[in-house]
Design a protein that fits this description.
This protein has 493 residues and is α+β, with helices and mostly antiparallel strands. The protein is built from 21 helices and nine strands. The strands form two sheets. Strands 1, 2, 3, 4, 5, 6 and 7 form a seven-stranded mixed β-sheet that branches. Helix 3 crosses helix 8 and helix 13 packs across helix 15.
Length: 493
């Protein structure tokens, strides 16, 4: 109850507080001209620690320019924003195919023909050549991201149909042949009745509108997509981060959200669409940041500990030797050793999620949404499928864990049965109020796991401070919360 109350109060107050985020990457190109907004000296980092070091430096160097200071205010991009009608086909929303529109929100042509760019720390004039470099670069990123997403998700529908056929007790061939038939007396197809996605196309991932701009009311955001609309926002800071790791990860994530064949409101409310959109972008070997640190991969890290024996909290304890007021002293050898182990786990998860867990969800999203509600867990499909396919190794290895677990199997089954019977009950007796989902998401992404632990421990021993927080001024609240920041990353998108 203390933790829930703490989260609820904090989240209602900190939306405008601290900011730091995650992001994605751009493809390496020899001697390619980078957009003018890249900071001088940007490099593509190779080792895990080097990538993190460069990432944090880039955030510090570009935050005022692309995220703004506190209370940056609203903006009104309009008909004067420079836009480009592209030849990229998009089927990301319902209706006939369209062509993607690229919108540079705060790039405008002045009456004298010059091109003015508004940043969050000033304005500048750019040339036609610089404008072309920005447009060409963004189009390249969209094409790469669409290719990567399509390559990973192309087999999904076939696998989901196979799983669904087994559940229905019919042959895969029979189900597949009847998917587009109408249910007798209705205008509903067999595919729709079974909530199966249509055949995936590359154009499903292409946005209807891609905006290069800022979202000042979402502190620290790198990218955002509005479901069912085909609209994606991409912050210049995200493009720089994508270049750092060498793959268009941020925009891949947003383009998965953008695909209404995979993520569509209101079905999106029944599952953790942020985690699903993080597959595969957080699992690529080029991404040496997000899996270990980002809030969206929190549940995967827990499963990593249970089934592969790598404890992220223990890793942090061994890797971070000192914290000199926001300057972390790192054991570089241990850092790289642990990331080598992490890459083995990520490669295993990449295949398992593609072949088993994600098709299982899309074979019956209505069932899994109901199960998520029952268990109060939006990622129950991943926990269940991991348990069905792997054995725990959390107690120092498979043999040791089996030795401890086997004599207690009956006890565990009784505990599981009891927990399932009482889970999800909302009859009001002893029920705890839940903070809104969007606030929980903001909290988890503005603060790392370590920072959330510090906050929780502090308020458990200082409950009087929690009572006073709603009366704090915005400036005092922000300063108070900064005391819990460690310089580690989080972010929203």
């Amino acid at each position: 109850m203390k933790r829930l109350r703490c989260i609820s109060i904090l989240l209602a107050l900190i939306i405008s507080a601290s900011s730091y985020l995650p992001a994605y990457a751009g493809e390496k190109k020899a001697q390619k001209e980078l957009p003018f907004y890249f900071p001088e000296g940007v490099v593509q980092a190779l080792s895990p620690l080097q990538q993190m070091q460069e990432y944090l430096r880039l955030l510090a160097a570009t935050n005022d320019r692309f995220q703004g200071r506190e209370h940056s205010g609203v903006l009104i991009p309009g008909s004067d924003s420079i836009s480009v009608e592209t030849d990229l086909e998009t089927t990301s929303t319902d209706g006939p195919p369209l062509k993607m529109k690229l919108v540079l929100d705060h790039y405008v042509r002045l009456p004298d023909g010059r091109i003015r760019v508004t940043l969050l720390d000033g304005q500048l004039i750019i040339t036609e050549h610089q404008l072309k470099a920005v447009v060409d670069d963004l189009l390249e990123m969209v094409n790469l991201a669409a290719d990567y997403n399509f390559a990973y998700y192309k087999p999904l529908v076939d696998k989901a149909i196979s799983v669904r056929a087994a559940k229905l007790g019919v042959s895969e061939e029979e189900l597949r042949s009847r998917l587009d038939e109408k249910v007798r007396g209705t205008n509903v197809t067999i595919r729709e009745l079974n909530s199966l996605p249509r055949i995936t196309k590359r154009s499903d991932f292409v946005p209807r509108e891609l905006h290069l701009g800022y979202n000042t009311e979402l502190p620290g955001i790198f990218g955002v997509a509005w479901l069912n609309t085909g609209i994606v926002y991409y912050n210049p800071q995200a493009r720089i981060r994508d270049f750092l790791s060498g793959r268009p990860l941020v925009i891949q994530h947003e383009m998965i959200h953008n695909n209404s064949n995979l993520q569509e409101f209101p079905m999106s409310e029944g599952a953790d669409m942020e985690l699903i959109a993080s597959i595969p972008e957080m699992l690529y070997p080029e991404n040496r940041i997000d899996f270990f640190y980002h809030g969206y991969s929190r549940d995967l890290r827990e499963l990593m500990w249970i089934y592969f024996g790598l404890n992220p909290k223990q890793v942090r304890k061994e890797v971070i030797r000192y914290d000199h007021a926001g300057n972390l002293v790192i054991d570089e050898q241990k850092y790289n050793e642990y990331f080598q182990k992490l890459e083995l786990i990520k490669s295993e998860l990449m295949v398992f999620l593609q072949d088993v867990a994600v098709p299982e969800f899309y074979s019956d999203p209505v069932f899994w949404s109901a199960m998520n509600e029952k268990l109060a867990d939006k990622n129950s499909v991943f926990r269940v499928m991991m348990a069905a396919n792997y054995e725990p190794t959390i107690l120092g290895g498979l043999a040791e864990t089996r030795k401890w677990r086997e004599p207690r199997r009956d006890e565990f089954e009784d505990m599981a049965r009891e927990s399932y019977e009482i889970s999800g009950k909302k009859n009001g007796v002893g029920a705890q109020p839940q903070p809104p989902e969007f606030l929980v998401s903001q909290y988890n992404n503005l603060f790392s796991e370590l920072e959330r632990e510090r906050l929780q421990n502090y308020f458990e021993t200082h409950p009087d401070v929690l009572e006073k927080m709603p009366k704090m001024s915005a400036a005092d609240l922000i300063q108070f919360l900064r005391n819990f920041k460690t310089g580690s990353i989080g972010g929203v998108r």
